[in-house]
Amino acid sequence: MKELLKFEDINISYDKKQVLYDLSFSMGEGEILGIVGNSGCGKSTLLKSILGLSGPKVLSGKILFENKDLLSLSTNEMRSIRGCRISMVFQESGIHTNPLKTIGDTVFESMKAHKQISKDDALNTALNIFENLSLPDPKRILNAYPFELSGGMNQRVGIALAMLNNPSLILADEPTSALDPIVAVQIVNELKSLREKYNTAIILVTHNIKIAKSITDNILVLNNGKTLDYGNAKEVLSSPKSDFTKELILSTLG
Ligand SMILES: Nc1ncnc2c1ncn2[C@@H]1O[C@H](COP(=O)(O)OP(=O)(O)OP(=O)(O)O)[C@@H](O)[C@H]1O
Ligand SMILES: [Mg+2]
Q1: Which ligand is nearest to the CA of 17?
Q2: Which atom of ligand 1 is nearest to the CA of 45?
Q3: Which terminal residue of the chain, N or C, has fewer Cβ atoms less than 10 Å from its own Cβ?
């Protein structure tokens, strides 16, 4: 598997408070990496640092993505990667979409931000992805405003929108935690089919070990910013090294 993303000894702080320590991991193209850990352990911070979002300060280390050193890129170079090579799925998908715009208009806007494209071509790209993800009634979705769709459907649309510019990496921060268990399973299946159909790699932040178990290749367990377990998901979950991971597994898998 070709390497896609690599963290080398990353240390991150906010102001003077350090939140991630000596973080190292790597993932290949099309790999699904699960990140689990206690609330406040630094999961969202890790994702923000990949996107180069303001806030967290990388004190030392390297982040390599598609052989580029992300920390050395200019704001403009980073902007061209964000939403294009790397995109994000949030916990509340409302963030993806503008409430005053139809999904179709949002589609056109997010595609033309990265390349010259006609509205028809943009909408067709979206229809194709909606169909590949088995979203019901794709044409109605394009004409709908976000408030006309259910929360679960908005989240599914959010995942489809994250695919518009054919990224090689999707960052999903708790994409299922606001949803009922049935829709959560649907979302997980959709993420799986992204990998199958488009070979998209995914970092999935989740509190739900069951979900992590069902979808991830590798798992990284963080506790208060430190890596306690990392490796093949089946191995980590069947023979965890740390007591924290053992407790996490016991509390959710029983
Ligand atoms: N913008 C910020 N400024 C200062 N400190 C922050 C900021 N964002 C997060 N933190 C702190 O950094 C630490 C890690 O936060 P982060 O949001 O990455 O945790 P998390 O693992 O995503 O938690 P959760 O599971 O609750 O979403 C926490 O102690 C948090 O309070
Ligand atoms: Mg978080």
Answers
A1: 1
A2: 18
A3: C
